[in-house]
Amino acid sequence: TYGPASTPTHPLATAPVSSPAHSVDGFVREFLHELNTNQGVTLSLSSVNDQYLALASTVKNYLMARWLETNRKTRDAKVKAVGYLSAEYLLGRQLGNALLATDLGEIAHKGLELCGLDLATLRSQEVEPGLGNGGLGRLAACFIDSLATMDVPCIGYGIRYEYGIFRQTFVDGRQVEQPDTWLSLGSPWEFPHPEASVQVDFGGHTEKYTDDDGRERTRWVPAWNVLGVPYNYMVPGYLNGRVNTLRLWSAQATKAFDLGIFNAGDYAQAVRAQTFAENISKVLYPEDSTPQGKELRLQQQYFFVACSLRDFINNELEEGFDLHNLSDRIIFQLNDTHPVIAVPELMRILVDEQGFEWDEAWEVTKSCFAYTCHTLLPEALEVWSTELLGRLLPRHLEIIFQINDEFLAEVRATYPGDEIRARRMSMIAEHPERGVRMAYLATVAGTKVNGVAALHSQLLRDKVLPDFSQLWPEKFTNVTNGVTPRRFVKMANPHLSDLISDTIGNGWVTDLERLRELEPYADDPEFQDKFREIKAWNKRRLTSLLEARDGIVLPDGHLLDVMVKRLHEYKRQSLKLLHIISLYEQVVSGKIAASDLTPRTVVFGAKAAPGYKMAKDTIHLINKVAEKVNNDPVLEGRLKVAFPANYNVTLAEKLIPAADLSEQISLAGMEASGTGNMKFALNGALTIGTDDGANVEIRELVGDKHFFLFGMDEPAVAELGAKGYNPITYYESQPQLRAALDMVMNGAFSDGDQDMFGSVVHNLLHQDRFMALADFESYVAAQAKVEEKYADQAAWTRSSILNVARTGFFSSDRSMRDYIQRIWHTQPMI
Ligand code: Z57
């Protein structure tokens, strides 16, 4: 039960919650109060960490009244909400965003200065919550930011990993992973609610029984359980007073767990049991675009989904809503297949616990979910073995079988006699072992299925789920991804933001298409100068950061060429590397003079999944090439390679605004969308890219002249694959490519060791699944075009301005509008 035991009589007890005064004095008072009462220190004895924590609490206090008011208003309005279900949220630092959302930046800066403190120093004390791997997790963070800013009720559900994505270090050029201890210096942004914990069951068996009404029912008799403790995070809208909630679940042992299946009375065993339960939310799987078929991973998925549904449904029942109309109250968006176990879980709740008839429950369930697919790689689609599922979640497996039986009956009715099709479409795969195809389950259960860029959605219909799109064409739709302009332009690029606002007003921050109004200035020499000066400032800011962070010294006046994203063969970091090696080789062998090179610094940022050998070898090679190239005087300092370790959101915010050239060079048809590509374009980098993912839409919008396209398109890739791809023929017929690969093979980057990178070269020559060699020639030609354009700074700057002006489409606000109109059918509150 909640609230006071008797009616409050003090006037303050019933007044709305108020915020501290929005003034320097109000801020300083609040800050010192937090420092004294929360941290328990005086200003003169406080550490930087004390100061940071007090500052975070101060900003939180400003947000609190808005959060409480948002919750009250949303509850009263009884509107439909979005339940975003995602195993990952790659949030980035919170403080800067909270200051921006509350318009406290200036006030905090002045107030802290008057306390003898520096806001920037305190901001750099924050450790970002890295609760995601890459694009998928960052997308979730952008989406909840946009929903709050658009005044749409949304609750994000996920896992509070105690350790987020590993911290990457390099030892002798090789990646070494360190645990991410993001909670160790305090976690001021979270609000734990142990009193609202929910229980999650696992294991055991099912039983049939006849209920009091004589109906045949099933009950699940689980073997063990854990507790899910909710931790709430504020998701502030930009200057609009809305604060939505992100609810992340942490696993804890229950009493029953300690004492039940594990030996009661055995203290050591009880502690082990505790550890076992808490393992569930211990660590983020560092896999990206590849599934991890591990039992613990399935436990994580079911854990957070069961907590989230229980949480939402309990609330609905408490408020007196009828679960028959659940879809008037919520739409659960499935961020990839990771949360798809929510489908049988909702069926189980409705049928087994709430006594719904199966058909009735299925109608409700079908209308409460929608599914987003983020990949086309066949090996990235999750399949859970029925052995594991049946052992961990026996009732859910039964429910999945029944959903599948009824679905296949529908298929057979629609296509009589087409048994091959029915088998193809079954949610149950038979090979290599019996397993549940989670993407099929999501497709059957979802009201809508969407891809994340136009090309990807088309390929999803045509290649991954063709039978399903034939059966239900209206189910399939596209929503092109987007990124939040608040974090990735306004916060990350303050001077560009000021220039834009001075030129066209500040409406663009929440209406990004208005960047179009910059187009007339693309030819204005004065505007161009200011624009270029901002790029130079961003480069200087990056230079000092990398020097302090990694001891890397970036030269002045270089074209800054940036490739930052997870390390994956399909993304083709090796193609970028071959270009670098080739430039180097041509100078070393005297084919060109160092003075012919356009001064260029290539920056890589990439983490490899710890078990992904080829990716880790590629990281090693990049570092070795960097070492060699950076120290060889033959290049006269005109080619540099920088590979700062531990690329994350915090580094992205400094790197992207400094970039001249954005590398988006995946094999066509492989990158579902990409979102880094959008961030670069919005910050004025030109793209060199293939016809893949959202690159296609970026190029369409900015225009061919302002985008460096190269490589095969998707049909050409498919054709070459069908014909039979043989990478060695490119090696044999292209001397420049051959020389670059020979250089690696001959040990030029491994002190003469010809084995060190043998597997990387061997793979490229004899397998090259992602056809890097086939696109090499075209890539090199496109890079020559880049250099030609860069030589004409006015032309380059013009293109750069036009990239900013024409990419407003890629705001995640627009993505949210698309989801709302075509998938969710929810409404903003105002
Ligand atoms: C992930 O970050 C993405 C796809 C996945 O299947 C998994 Br698992 C993780 C990425 C895509 O590779 C990007 O192309 C896309 O932009 C991003 O998801 C967001 O949709």
TrEMBL record:
<comment type="function">
    <text>Phosphorylase is an important allosteric enzyme in carbohydrate metabolism. Enzymes from different sources differ in their regulatory mechanisms and in their natural substrates. However, all known phosphorylases share catalytic and structural properties.</text>
</comment>
<dbReference type="InterPro" id="IPR000811">
    <property type="entry name" value="Glyco_trans_35"/>
</dbReference>
<dbReference type="Pfam" id="PF00343">
    <property type="entry name" value="Phosphorylase"/>
</dbReference>
<feature type="region of interest" description="Disordered">
    <location>
        <begin position="1"/>
        <end position="19"/>
    </location>
</feature>
<protein>
    <recommendedName>
        <fullName>Alpha-1,4 glucan phosphorylase</fullName>
        <ecNumber>2.4.1.1</ecNumber>
    </recommendedName>
</protein>
<dbReference type="GO" id="GO:0008184">
    <property type="term" value="F:glycogen phosphorylase activity"/>
</dbReference>
<dbReference type="GO" id="GO:0005737">
    <property type="term" value="C:cytoplasm"/>
</dbReference>
<keyword id="KW-0328">Glycosyltransferase</keyword>
<keyword id="KW-0119">Carbohydrate metabolism</keyword>
<keyword id="KW-0808">Transferase</keyword>
<dbReference type="InterPro" id="IPR035090">
    <property type="entry name" value="Pyridoxal_P_attach_site"/>
</dbReference>
<comment type="function">
    <text>Allosteric enzyme that catalyzes the rate-limiting step in glycogen catabolism, the phosphorolytic cleavage of glycogen to produce glucose-1-phosphate, and plays a central role in maintaining cellular and organismal glucose homeostasis.</text>
</comment>
<dbReference type="GO" id="GO:0005980">
    <property type="term" value="P:glycogen catabolic process"/>
</dbReference>
<dbReference type="GO" id="GO:0030170">
    <property type="term" value="F:pyridoxal phosphate binding"/>
</dbReference>
<feature type="compositionally biased region" description="Polar residues">
    <location>
        <begin position="1"/>
        <end position="9"/>
    </location>
</feature>
<dbReference type="InterPro" id="IPR011833">
    <property type="entry name" value="Glycg_phsphrylas"/>
</dbReference>
<comment type="similarity">
    <text>Belongs to the glycogen phosphorylase family.</text>
</comment>
<keyword id="KW-0663">Pyridoxal phosphate</keyword>
<feature type="modified residue" description="N6-(pyridoxal phosphate)lysine">
    <location>
        <position position="679"/>
    </location>
</feature>
